Amino acid sequence: MFSLGDLYKEVIIDHTKAPRNFGKLEPCSHDAEGFNPLCGDQLHVYLQIDDNNIIEDVKFEGQGCSISTASASLMTQALKGKSVANFNTMFSAFHDMATADMDDKPDEDVLGKLAVLAGVKEFPSRIKCATLCWHTVKSAIEDAGQPAKTE
Amino acid sequence: MNIDNIRNDFPILHQEVFGHPLVYLDNAATTQKPQCVIDTIRQYYEKDNSNIHRGVHSLSERATKDYEAARETIRDFFNAKSSKEVIFTRGTTESINLVASSWGNANIGKDDEVLITHMEHHSNIVPWQMLCERTGAKLKIIPMNEAGELDLTAYAELLSERTKLVGIVHMSNALGTINPIADMIKQAHQVGAKVLIDGAQAAAHIATDIQALDIDFYATSAHKMYGPTGVGVLIAKEELLNAMPPYQGGGDMILIVTFDKTQYNELPHKFEAGTPNIAGVIGFGEALKYISNIGFSAIEKREKELLDYATKKAQSFEGLRQIGTAKDKACVLSFVLDGVHPHDLGTILDREGVAIRAGHHCAMPVMQFYKVPATARASFSIYNTEAEVDALFTALEKARDMFA
Ligand SMILES: Cc1ncc(COP(=O)(O)O)c(C=O)c1O
Known about the structure:
The structure holds two protein chains of two kinds.
Chain A: H1 4-7, H2 10-17, E1 30-36, E2 41-49, E3 55-63, H3 66-79, H4 84-99, H5 108-111, H6 127-142
Antiparallel strand pairs in A: 1-2, 2-3
Chain B: H1 3-8, E1 16-17, E2 20-21, E3 23-24, H2 35-48, H3 58-78, E4 86-89, H4 92-107, E5 113-117, H5 126-135, E6 138-142, H6 152-158, E7 163-169, H7 181-190, E8 194-198, H8 210-213, E9 217-221, E10 232-236, H9 238-243, E11 254-257, E12 262-264, H10 278-294, H11 296-315, E13 320-322, E14 332-337, H12 342-350, E15 354-355, E16 357-359, H13 364-370, E17 375-379, H14 386-402
Parallel strand pairs in B: 3-15, 5-6, 5-7, 7-8, 8-9
Antiparallel strand pairs in B: 1-2, 4-10, 9-10, 11-12, 13-14, 14-17, 16-17
Helix pairs in contact in B: 2-10, 3-10, 4-5, 11-14, 12-14
The complex binds pyridoxal-5'-phosphate (PLP).
């Protein structure tokens, strides 16, 4: 059985209390809002993507639980300097990790530090908290800022 | 009132969650069901199941008799004038939608106003918003203060001859506030407005006499009163129901159907199209008998005791801010804790066996008023104990330490 400590790892508590890349990015090339109607989490992500499809900078702001805040904070760190193609690979790997079977190992080659969030799969009602920021970036890039939902 | 005996009536309470005894404090979302309700539903499916109002065989006659007997139990429980005024629905939400559609479409025009309170559940906001969008009528809001009490001076000023309907939650599920509906109904009637009372949260905790209060429309759900989910009731004055067009068409709500014209059935059947939740209605009746056997004076006294105990603990808990501190309140302790998001509290407490609700409680305008995204809510019932309140606060300490 997973314990609470598998979800609330030290890294996650740390990012909850001191989220990285928190705030507005001005100017930015892409942005979108994400909303989790179940718990009221609200997120706004901002991206600066250059002509070569490289994510030069990314920031977020909003209100959310520990898992959604830490996930967004870790994501911004992971995405800086990556290409949009990289983002898509990471999006899939993250999504697989959060919804995988209990025994599946996360793809640490792709996910790196993001693998600390693997514990959410044991907490079904919290998976959407972890994936919200990823869906929000996806909609910022693909749907020209349509509000993201986790469904 | 013996709590141990009451707890023994509820089989679900006697289980462990993650190795801890279950502490069920999410009663405002739905209450647990006593054995007598479970047995009644089971007996119905084992012995009496058949369709009602249409068979001539014994099973159908038994099912019809039990279904209609439940209607009488419910009429009596709320002291409605006649069982013709008791319409079974899927629950509070459907009852309110029925009124907003059927009565609303026929009686609300573009210069009219619908007045609701700031602390309504979404089910008593959205149907009226939809009605106002259809008709051009205006939706107005009765404000509240920081304690979560309605501003009655503002209410008096908002009432006018344009007000056609006032919708009031009897007890707020997000704050616990019990609203002074008796006076508010009188004031509404003075300007000729009809009143809808959302009784979903109050009905299991305080006695409600529909005739004494002169309520025009009353909506509630069985599942918050120890009954099954998916069934509830609309109780409305007979003359209003008679004048209203049907809500849904179909079987049971008709007398004669030809392709030229249909003649509708009498009340209450006019508003009960299709095969209803027969087992649910019969279980609902049994649940109300269970409440009546305990009696509201005992229930109110015990639940107040428990809320007072929990409130004292909350007041001395560092970093805890109560949301909803009305003088007149019941059974709900809604709060936020510094440094720990309600959603995390919900998860952490669950691992200690403590079930609470975290979120907006289907009352987003209340969250907006207090400028919080969500609250944690512990809500109590007749079977909860002081020891369970202690378990709640022990688990809260654990959560606070985790994020310290
Ligand atoms: C005050 C209040 N009104 C209405 C409802 C809706 O009841 P139901 O979902 O049973 O239709 C609820 C249930 O959460 C409630 O607490």
